Amino acid sequence: QVQVVESGGDLVQAGGSLRLSCAASGSIARNNVVAWYRQAPGKQRELVASLTSGGSESYADSVKGRFTISRDNTKNTVYLQMNSLKPEDTAIYYCKWSLSYSGLRYLDYWGQGTQVTVSS
């Protein structure tokens, strides 16, 4: 089984920075996509950033230039560095590991979520 554990959420003032961590344990496929999502109260869950095993990065327009996704493959850990935080960044942040063992189909594993609150 694959287990995903997130950490790093906190209360921070606007303009501050925060780094989230997401560690996966178990059998991790070479072909994978790691993504960060967030969900604010009353809103749909949205994709914030993603990183493929090939190194391709993608960001939501709302966080471009402020957030950076990265990973340490030796630890099976992905990070989300968040700078210049805004109150609208307040949400529960979720990490998802999408693993492909066949090269055609992906299996998704979600973390429990970590709360990020940005005060004005």
Give the percentage of residues in beta strands.
Answer: over 45%
Q: Give me the secondary-structure category.
A: mainly beta
Mean pLDDT: 95
Order of helices and strands: EEEEEEEEEEE
Output the number of helix runs: 0
Shape: elongated
- C-alpha Rg, in Å? 14 Å
Distance between the termini: 41 Å
Biggest sheet record: 7 strands, mixed
Task: Please estimate the helix content.
Answer: under 10%
Q: How many strand units?
A: 11
What does the oligomeric state look like here? single chain
Poorly predicted segments: none
What does this structure look like?
The protein is mainly beta. It is 0% helix and 57% strand. The protein contains no helices and eleven strands. It has strands at 3-7, 11-13, 18-25, 31-39, 46-52, 57-59, 67-72, 77-82, 91-100, 106-110, 114-119.
Short note summarizing the structure:
By secondary structure, the chain is mainly β. It is 0% helix and 57% strand. Strands 2, 4, 5, 6, 9, 10 and 11 form a seven-stranded mixed beta sheet that branches. Strands 1-3-8-7 form a four-stranded antiparallel beta sheet, with no helix packed on it.
